[in-house]
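May I ask for an example protein's residues together with how it folds?

___
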Amino acid sequence: MIKQNFMYLFFSLILIFVLYPFFENNLILINIISSAIVISSVYSISSEKKAFLIGLILAGGAFVANWFMIIDGSNLVMGINAILTVLFYGFTMYQIIRYIMNANEVNMQVIFAAISLYILVGITWGFAYTLIELVKPGSFYFSEQISRSQFVWPDLLYFSFITLTTLGYGDIVPISALARSFTIIEAIMGVFYIAITISRLVSLYKTEDKKERSE
């Protein structure tokens, strides 16, 4: 299998922020970006055969459900898509965490992996919030002043990153107990991720520096 490369995943994730203003009511564009992320995610974890096969199976389900929404945009299909996507991204994040924790040095791939992991957390929680809203409508309060999308995911993707970075503008508010619980978990993850990741990268850098001095 090929060596892990997170550069393509990183840039496909960045496209979300670049093209986000055009997501409103544009399901095809959302699907194209989502497909690019799925493909680059599979590529990034393809260094191990077992991980690659599991990722490919999960990615296939998410990919099919993602594009099937164009034919059937019902809440059921959107819910299935959200579940499959959360499972796939969850597995991808697990593989990235393994990669970072097993890294022997700080290089561009480790940095790409760390940033990609942070962004994937925000995206995954956005799908989780979408599933919560689909299962129990009214779990989130949307301010009348914000421009609502025809599809709930773009709005809750925005909410997810606002929560992850602990900004909390108040234009979208969790109402149900489950929505509040997930919001709390994501906020905690956002705070601890920065601390843990920085400490890990600093530790790798110090270890690498000591090796260079000893030589």
